[in-house]
Amino acid sequence: MMKFPQNFLWGAATSSYQVEGNNSNADWWQWEKETGKVNSGAACRHYELFEQDFDLARSLNHNAHRLSIEWSRIEPEEGKFSQKELQHYLDVILALRARNIEPIVTLHHFTNPVWLSECRGWLNPEVRTYFARYCNFVCRGLAEHVRYWITINEPTIYYSHSYIFGFWPPQVKSLFKAKLVEDNLVGGHIQAYRLIHKIYKEKNLPEPSVSIAQNVMAFVPCTQSLKNRLTAALRHKWYNLGFLERIHKNLDFIGINYYSRQLVDLKGYGISNFAGDVCQDNHLPVKKNSLGWDIYPQGLEELLLKLKKFNLEIMITENGICTADDHLRWEYLSAHLKNIYLAMEKGVKVSGYLYWSLMDNFEWDKGFVPRFGLIDIDYSTYKRTIRESAKKFAQVCKTGVLEV
Ligand code: FCB
Predict the structure, then answer these.
(1) Which of 2, 98, 126, 279 is the S-S candidate for 341 at Cβ 3.0 to 4.6 Å?
(2) Is 328 touching ligand 1 by the criterion CB < 6 Å?
């Protein structure tokens, strides 16, 4: 039996673009229309149905919920801030508070307003000022009701998917540009971090707790050759730690999103080899999610131990599986909880666990096919159905006890 601390945060995460629907002022919306690849459309209609969704979260004993604010709703045109949309998010946060659910609020979760993407997006050095101006508006409006802020979700995924590999808008492939974006994300975070603290001081509110949500992966050498071991270590340093090392003095805790393992098999000596070669031979086989990502719960314990050096509390801001097999979902979830517990026993301070996601939703360039939710969505009726795995997790949320 594993007993988690009394004040542990238990819940799930979502992001505005993936669940709300009709975010027609966002760069992703424009990209969907231009490429025809996917169509987020009404998503889960969470923009209208949030009360119903939070009733379900409460019925599942969640005491925390991570959500994001859609910048393109708040500032649909440059410099024009919408009081109406700010009020909407205030209503969302108050709806959580009314259910005794702690809101964890993300300010940037991949999407940008179209006007920003039209002026070079995160490549434009002005973006730091734009982002700070938006954060200022949102934070002043919500500060009284929010303690936890995530400034930027997965900066490393954002700049690598959008500016190195070019899968996501604006589909750029340039290491040089990716570096500029990374620098602006670092600057954007640091400015937002300081600003949020300043606003709380001015308002005489208790100190906020501010972080990013950093995507981390277990990099495992597929053979014990020196080149594979070295590359795995390099990837860990660049991908998992690089961004954190640049901002750790401006973090109150570390938010991490952990999903999977990468089996490292270096096949050549170019930059793309170092950054991306993966073993295709299925050495060291493990079960996979429906997108083919390896399931590797022990990687989470190992990573938590490696992050201990920052001497900051850690919150698991995302961890989850897309699968048609709900038994596997519970196997995944409980195995990851077990590994968090093992790390905590070794002295890592973990403050909470947020499963990705509360409900099935729009999975970016993969559309609606992957099912990550604790709650199933029927996209023809928008009916919500709680999955069995969610009920098992609800027991842990209620008691703090994991039976393994
Ligand atoms: C993370 C993202 C989140 C979701 C999950 C599956 O990288 O932060 O929006 O897409 O992956």
Answers:
(1) 2
(2) no
Q: Which amino acid is at 156?
A: T
Residue 170: asked if its preceding bond is cis (omega within 30°), the reply is: yes
* DSSP run (H or E) holding 314: strand 314-318
- CA pair distance 296, 287, nearest whole angstrom: 8
Does residue 20 carry a pLDDT above 80?
A: yes
For residue 378, give both structure tokens: 């029927």
Mean of per-residue pLDDT scores for the chain:
97
For 124-143, write each residue's pLDDT tens digit: 999 999 999 999 999 999 99
Hey, what are 15's tokens? 């992001």
Is residue 271 over pLDDT 80?
no
Nearest CA to ligand 1 atom 9: 15
**214 has which bridge partners?**
256
**Quick one: DSSP state of residue 122?**
G
Give pTM, 2 decimals: 0.98
- DSSP assignment of 9-55 equals EEEEE--HHHHS---TTBHHHHHHHHH-S---TTTT-HHHHHHHHHH
Region 308-322 average pLDDT? 98
**Distance between CA atoms of residues 160 and 16, nearest Å:** 21
Ligand 1 midpoint to CA 153 (Å):
9
Q: Say whether pLDDT at 273 is over 90.
A: no
Q: Looking at the predicted structure, is the pLDDT value of residue 12 above 90?
A: yes
Residues 372 and 364: their CA atoms lie apart, in Å, by: 13
Query: How many Å lie between the centroid of ligand 1 and the Cα of residue 206?
Result: 30
Which tens digit of pLDDT belongs to each residue from 96-107? 999 999 999 999
Domains of the chain: 2-402 (3.20.20.80)
DSSP annotation of 300: H
What CA–CA distance (Å, rounded) separates 161 from 157? 6
CB atoms within 10 A of CB 164: 22
Q: What is the rounded CA–CA span in Å between residue 32 and residue 244?
A: 31
Dihedral (CA of 357, 131, 121, 179) sign: negative
- Sign of torsion, CA 69 153 181 143? positive
Residue 273 Cα, ligand 1 centroid: separation in angstroms? 24
